[in-house]
Amino acid sequence: MAAIITGADSGIGRATAVALARRGHDIGITYSRDEDGAKATAEEVRSHDRQAEVRHLDLAQSADVQRTIDALDDALSGVDVLVNNAGTGTSTPFLDIELADWRDVLAVNLTGAFLAAQAAARHMVGRGRGGRIVNVTSVHEHVPLDGATPYVVAKHGLGGLTKCMALELAEHGITVNSVAPGEIATPMTGQEDEDPREQQRPGVPVGRPGDAREVADLIAYLTSPAAGYTTGGSYVIDGGMLLMAAQANQLAMG
Ligand code: NAD
Which ligand 1 atom is the nearest neighbour of the CA of 185? Predict the structure, then answer.
């Protein structure tokens, strides 16, 4: 079995690469900037006696996506699992968003994920042994965030893409699901060196940020044979963050 994980040079992507290697998958790793990070992930995969293949992929360069997935499929003798993990965002008020930033965030989070999934699914269908696709979205697949319009729109779109692919690929034995994290301690949230269990988040029921390995374990379940009847869903992993809306006003009033 082989899995391709985009953006596996750090954070949730790296944790997922290691979790799937532990479960017996060979791993295709893509990175955009951090080659050393990607090599470190590969070393960890190999320490579990699995094959690791590293490729550069800037998802904003649409023309490169299919080529990279095809190359990894070939190097790994067939992709069984794709995890569309790579993502990026901006922090700009709606009134000030530049078209170039809008395009970049949608290109990486949505168009890149579409192209990667289509390329991987074509290989899966061609081989006829089914497959698993997991799209890493966000709680912002479901609720908005101030100052993050392109990210929120892209993640909502990725949720829609998940459902469309689930519908059309089921007959080929391919399941497609989203994993929607809340705050996870990774470079994206500036917490890569911190233990999330030591941090307080009183606004979240579980009271702390999540650990990338907790997200990786959910992804690993969704890619396992046990999850064959699970498709088209969005699995929120947020320590209960999305349950807090009704209490927001009460908390603000003190
Ligand atoms: P991270 O910074 O460790 O990982 C982001 C990954 O995206 C990196 O590996 C990077 O190489 C890749 N990437 C960025 N721009 C790219 C581009 N142009 N082309 C290709 N790859 C690119 O952060 P993370 O938290 O592990 O993020 C992984 C995923 O989880 C993202 O999709 C993110 O939106 C999502 N997410 C994270 C959190 C969180 O709190 N950390 C919450 C919700 C969703």
Answer: 41
The 10 Å CB-count burial string (b at 16+, else e) for 155-174 is bbbbbebbbebbeebeebeb
CATH classification at residue 223: 3.40.50.720
Could you list the residue range(s) of the whole structural domain that residue 205 is in?
2-252
Q: Which residue has the higher pLDDT, 192 or 212?
A: 212
The DSSP code for 196 is G
- Ligand 1 centroid–CA 161 distance in Å is 18
pLDDT band, residue 192 (cuts 50/70/90): confident
With the most atoms of ligand 1 within 8 angstroms of its CB, the residue from 186, 208, 236 to mutate is 186
Give pTM, 2 decimals.
0.98
pLDDT, tens digit, 9 for 90 and up, residues 12-35: 999 999 999 999 999 999 999 999
Question: In total, how many domains does the chain have?
Answer: 1
